[in-house]
């Protein structure tokens, strides 16, 4: 693997000079060893202090792979019950108030709030195990995406896992389509939901997971909705940068969410466009939702909309109605209170190549296309908190489609 996975193992011995007699009275703690050589792993280790039980790192800087934000590593040699100190540098985007931690690499909680010391955020965490994983946020790897779509496929006959495409580096991009026999195709709502056009925004894949969990659940609302909708879901769009633990945003030549042109660079964007164009041409496309994580100071979910002058009257009415449904359903703990922003020329020079803007221009004028930004720097920015946002988003979608958006 080219980047982020070859940082190797660092071992630095402590207690140099201790006498044999002292050793017997105070046995040496086991050596802390650290590694990021696994799927999604990323760390540039600067210091491992065996005596202070301290690990210092910064996110790695893989050339051309976008923002330097994401970090995720494993530590072994921990004495169960001891407190490990993790120091992370590189500024506020890399250093959440609380970092994610796990003793099994599956169930993620948060550390206590970190404290800034100089240029480093210092997290202290008592580990009840001999191994721990620490990360910027709860990781969601390409393998997790595959497992999510495979589990849905196994659980429900009407859910089918498929490969959206092979990425530019040859990795499969897992996707899912859900449609239960019920209404005929012409009266079925067409919906596209995707996450992780920006690889570091792992929380958006957990939101996506919440969407899938609800849509495939036995909630009678979900069961009824599956009979009247065809929902495409892509939990990770930028599989290459997620796999190597790179940031992805503003990668070379540009990132996935500046790639929605007539000649996309990324295969996932091209494949998504093809599906959306086909459904739209058949009169069977109604909604597009792109899932992201925003800036560190954001505390609530909000939506980005296309610029007002691009939005027709029918589209505007539908967006307003959908946002009203989101206010009803997205009740927290990460709550949608109605906040929206435009991403137009004043937001970004490449605004016309942002996904929902492309969808707005290239679909029928009743179609709702928006970006959901879910706050990552809160005590609720956990798998449970993110999944709740996804479930509530899915319920808002179901409620919206109780009334036809088509004119
Ligand atoms: Zn983003």
Structural description of this entry:
This protein is of the alpha/beta class. It has 2 domains: 20-135, Immunoglobulin-like, CATH 2.60.40; 142-400, Zn peptidases (Aminopeptidase), CATH 3.40.630. It has 9 helices and 18 strands. It has helices at residues 20-25, 142-155, 202-215, 220-226, 239-244, 267-281, 313-329, 355-362, 383-400; strands spanning 33-35, 44-49, 54-58, 72-76, 83-89, 100-102, 109-110, 115-117, 120-126, 131-135, 159-166, 172-178, 189-195, 229-234, 287-292, 302-305, 340-342, 368-373. It has an 8-stranded mixed sheet with strand order 11-12-14-13-15-18-16-17, with helices on both faces. A 5-stranded antiparallel sheet has the order 1-4-10-6-7, with no helix packed on it. It has a 5-stranded mixed sheet with strand order 2-3-5-9-8, with no helix packed on it. Helix 2 packs parallel to helix 3 (202-215), helix 3 (202-215) crosses helix 9 and helix 7 crosses helix 9. The termini are far apart. 48% of the residues are buried. The protein binds zinc ion. Residues 198, 201, 292 line the site of zinc ion.
Could you give the topology of this structure?
Elements lengths: L19 H6 L7 E3 L8 E6 L4 E5 L13 E5 L6 E7 L10 E3 L6 E2 L4 E3 L2 E7 L4 E5 L6 H14 L3 E8 L5 E7 L10 E7 L6 H14 L4 H7 L2 E6 L4 H6 L22 H15 L5 E6 L9 E4 L7 H17 L10 E3 L12 H8 L5 E6 L9 H18 L7
Parallel strand pairs: 3-5, 13-14, 13-15, 15-18, 16-17
Antiparallel strand pairs: 1-4, 2-3, 4-10, 5-9, 6-7, 6-10, 8-9, 11-12, 12-14, 16-18
The structure holds zinc ion (ZN).
Annotation, overall tally of beta strands:
18
Rg over CA atoms, rounded to whole Å, is 22 Å
**Unreliable runs:** 1-24
**Helices and strands, in N-to-C order?**
HEEEEEEEEEEHEEEHHEHHEEHEHEH
The fraction of residues in strands falls at 15-25%
Query: Helix count?
Result: 9
Going by CATH, the architecture of the largest domain would be: 3-Layer(aba) Sandwich
Output the strand order for the largest sheet.
11-12-14-13-15-18-16-17
What about the largest sheet?
A: 8 strands, mixed
Helix-strand makeup class: alpha/beta
- General shape: globular
Heterogens: zinc ion
**CATH class designation of the largest domain:** Alpha Beta
User: How widely separated are the two ends?
Assistant: 50 Å
Helical content band: 25-40%
The name CATH uses for the topology of the largest domain is Aminopeptidase
Tell me the CATH superfamily of the largest domain. Zn peptidases
Write down the overall mean pLDDT: 94
Counted up, domains total 2
């Amino acid at each position: 693997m080219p980047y982020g996975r070859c940082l190797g193992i660092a071992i630095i011995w402590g207690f140099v000079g201790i006498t044999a007699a002292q050793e017997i009275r105070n046995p040496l703690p086991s050596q802390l060893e650290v590694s990021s050589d696994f799927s999604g792993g990323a760390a540039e280790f600067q210091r491992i202090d065996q005596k202070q039980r301290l690990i210092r790192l910064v996110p790695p800087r893989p050339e051309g792979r976008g923002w330097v934000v994401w970090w995720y590593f494993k530590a072994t040699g921990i004495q169960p019950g001891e407190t490990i100190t993790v120091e992370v540098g590189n500024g506020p985007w890399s250093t959440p108030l609380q970092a994610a931690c796990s003793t099994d690499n599956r169930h993620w909680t948060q550390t206590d709030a970190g404290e800034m010391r100089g240029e480093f955020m210092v997290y202290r965490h008592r580990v009840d195990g001999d191994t721990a994983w620490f990360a910027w946020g709860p990781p969601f790897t390409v393998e997790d995406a595959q497992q999510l779509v495979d589990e849905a496929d196994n659980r429900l006959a009407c859910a089918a896992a498929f490969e959206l495409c092979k990425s530019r580096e040859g990795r499969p991009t897992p996707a899912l389509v859900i449609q239960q026999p019920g209404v005929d195709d012409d009266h079925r709502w067409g919906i596209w939901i995707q996450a992780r056009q920006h690889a570091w925004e792992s929380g958006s894949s957990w939101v996506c997971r919440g969407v899938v969990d609800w849509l495939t659940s036995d909630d009678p609302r979900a069961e009824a909705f599956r009979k009247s909708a065809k929902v495409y879901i892509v939990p990770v769009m930028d599989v290459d940068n997620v796999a190597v633990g790179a940031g992805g945003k503003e990668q070379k030549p540009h990132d996935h969410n500046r790639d929605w042109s007539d000649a996309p660079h990324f295969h996932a964007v091209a494949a998504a466009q093809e599906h959306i164009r086909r459904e739209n041409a058949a009169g069977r496309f109604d909604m597009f939702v792109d899932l992201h994580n925003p800036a560190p100071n954001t505390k609530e979910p909000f939506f980005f909309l296309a610029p007002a002058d691009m939005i027709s009257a029918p589209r505007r009415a539908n967006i307003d109605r959908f946002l009203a449904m989101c206010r009803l359903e997205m009740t927290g703990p990460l709550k949608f209170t109605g906040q929206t922003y435009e991403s137009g020329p004043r937001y970004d020079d490449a605004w016309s190549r942002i996904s929902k803007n492309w969808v707005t221009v290239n679909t029928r004028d009743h179609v709702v296309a928006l970006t959901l930004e879910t706050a990552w720097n809160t005590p609720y920015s956990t798998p449970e908190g993110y999944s709740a946002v996804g479930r509530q988003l899915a319920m808002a979608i179901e409620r919206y489609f109780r009334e036809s958006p088509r004119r």
